[in-house]
Amino acid sequence: MKIIKPKRLQQGDVVGIVSPSEPVTEKLRKQFDVAVATLQEFGLKVKLGEHTFDQYFYNAGTREARIEDFNKIWKDPEVKMILMSQGGETANHLLDGIDYEVIKQNPKIFAGISDGTTLLNAIFSKTGLVTYHGPDLLWTFGRKVTEPYKQNFVKTLFDGNVGQLHEDKNWQHQERKDVKNSGWRCIRGGKATGILVGGHSGCLSSTMLAGYGQDFENAILFLEGTDDVGHLDRQFTTLKLNGVFGEIRGLIIGWFEDHEMKDKEKNRGVSDVILEVTKGYSFPILEIGELGHNVENYILPIGCLATIDADKKYFSIDEPTVL
Q1: Is residue 2 exposed (0-12), middle (13-18) or buried (19+ Cβ within 10 Å)?
Q2: What one-character DSSP code corresponds to residue 225?
Q3: What range defines the domain where residue 50 resides?
Q4: What is the distance between the alpha carbons of residues 172 and 170, in angstroms, rounded to a whole number?
Q5: 223 contacts 248 by C-beta, under 8 angstroms
């Protein structure tokens, strides 16, 4: 598959906002306004999709309205980056309605997280366009963005030269002060280089089931999630049974929000589950904190080469992330 990279951001560029999954409700409008102001601080302009604020039950408008917005914004020559307002549950509604040929002919930066996993990986799989996991509008730019992540945003999407990523020594959960992080950890030793793919483990599994999954051969897979370890075990096992762990070169695991079981006697660590499910495989596994829900995320470009050395707690993006 030919890899396509979008053009880098420049001062004055327009970011198009779409809501392909969950709605931006009225109680989120203040956070929405903060996010728009933050993007403007980066020298960017904001343009809203026509149905950005629509609400149809738990969806941001009907399936048809969301597909219309999504396809239209890719055709808009003024828009240089497309940013999801937030995740949700039903981005998969769009999978069979997206005009993938239009995307190939109009490559743009496309970013999201959570249910964004569904579209990020499907678009890369169908078009070869590099997509960007990590930032969305509300839960990235609508919160305080600290300096390391501002720099990462600029390095990834303006400069296109990321290089080595480093552990955030000031890591903190954005909603819970009681949550502590033990820093980057080697879960299984070794070194590997491959193309980054991944995201939310549940969304990744459902995207594969829908027939829009990506090729995992020689990949560095990264995973985060929002389910308890019992459900995560099922998701990881689904990946195993689909042959994913036999194809990848390395694995990065992030922060798994709400992974604790309600019954503490049934609880176990996510890394423990990963090691058990991947028993018999030899690929390296590195755990980092800057990937997941309610933590600040490094931008991970799906489709770009990366290297991990779990023993040395090393992680780098090895090629330009934009043109």
Answers
A1: exposed
A2: E
A3: 14-145
A4: 6
A5: no
